[in-house]
Amino acid sequence: MNFELASMSLGLMADDATDLLLVLVPDGFKPGRDGLSRLIGEAMKSQALETKAGKLLSAWRAPGVAAQRLVLAGAGDMSAVQVRTAVVAAMALVKSAAGRRLSFLFGPIPPDISMTIAQLRTSLVALAFGATTLLAQTDAAVLPAREQALVLWARGLLHLRRREAAALDTLSQAVSTGLQRAADPATWPALALCACDHAVALHEAGHHEAARERIGQVWPVLEAHATVPLLRMLEADDLLPVRSTPNT
């Protein structure tokens, strides 16, 4: 099965004739005017769907949805832990499903749920753990640059957490792919954190100076978006630029 991390809206995804559409539905979901949003809203209103992490609702040929099968997964507050819970539960349900293409979509995140770039990073780890088999089978080369970079980043983080040598090349590919969209400043925070993960992989492989150089390349953006624990870790590994210390 080919895995696709979709970046379209719910309305557009409703018209996508994928084999299986998996949508994460957060707490506080507010349906829009499109058919898929209304379907999710009606399911929540009737209590057929709960947004508690891991709660699922599956439908075959749902009205107004082009996908053969629709799976709605409650994702709670969209934290990394709850995203992982939702993805693991959904993967257990769909792993035996027929079809070649699975599209994965985050539902609209309400204003009172702040999904920071750092949370995106940890959510990618959760996604990698929950969909390991799908990530292994995904041909990232056929995806648009944004989706390629996210899939490669998730794979690389999984390798890094497992201390596997493949982390180095995979994260290097993720950075290179992300650079294809670097003309858009909105991509810089995610690119900086991805480059940071590549630097950690370089450091763990014994390439300390290359790791420091990688951090230096993205430092102006990374300094503004990295969490204090991440900066402390970089400081402990002597990867921070000269005269730079984490904010307290």
* Structural classification: alpha/beta
Top-tier CATH class of the largest domain: Alpha Beta
Helix-strand sequence: EHEHEEHEHHHHHHH
CATH superfamily name of the largest domain? Leucine Aminopeptidase, subunit E, domain 1
Distance between the termini: 46 Å
State the shape. Answer: elongated
Reconstruct the topology from this structure.
Elements: E1 2-5, H1 10-13, E2 20-25, H2 35-45, E3 56-60, E4 69-74, H3 80-94, E5 101-106, H4 117-130, H5 132-137, H6 145-161, H7 166-178, H8 188-204, H9 208-225, H10 228-236
Parallel strand pairs: 1-5, 2-4, 2-5
Antiparallel strand pairs: 3-4
Question: In a nutshell, what does this entry contain?
Answer:
With 248 residues, the chain is an alpha/beta fold. The chain has helices at residues 10-13, 35-45, 80-94, 117-130, 132-137, 145-161, 166-178, 188-204, 208-225, 228-236; strands at 2-5, 20-25, 56-60, 69-74, 101-106.
Which descriptors apply to this entry?
single chain, 248 residues, Leucine Aminopeptidase, subunit E, domain 1, Serine Threonine Protein Phosphatase 5, Tetratricopeptide repeat, 2 domains, 10 helices, elongated
Structure description:
- This protein is an alpha/beta fold and 248 residues long.
- The chain folds into 2 domains: 1-111, Leucine Aminopeptidase, subunit E, domain 1 (3-Layer(aba) Sandwich); 139-248, Serine Threonine Protein Phosphatase 5, Tetratricopeptide repeat (Alpha Horseshoe), CATH 1.25.40.
- The chain contains 10 helices and 5 strands.
- The chain has helices at residues 10-13, 35-45, 80-94, 117-130, 132-137, 145-161, 166-178, 188-204, 208-225, 228-236, and strands at residues 2-5, 20-25, 56-60, 69-74, 101-106.
- A 5-stranded mixed beta sheet has the order 1-5-2-4-3.
- Helix 4 (117-130) crosses helix 8.
- The chain starts with a strand and ends in a 12-residue tail after the last helix.
- The mean pLDDT is 79.
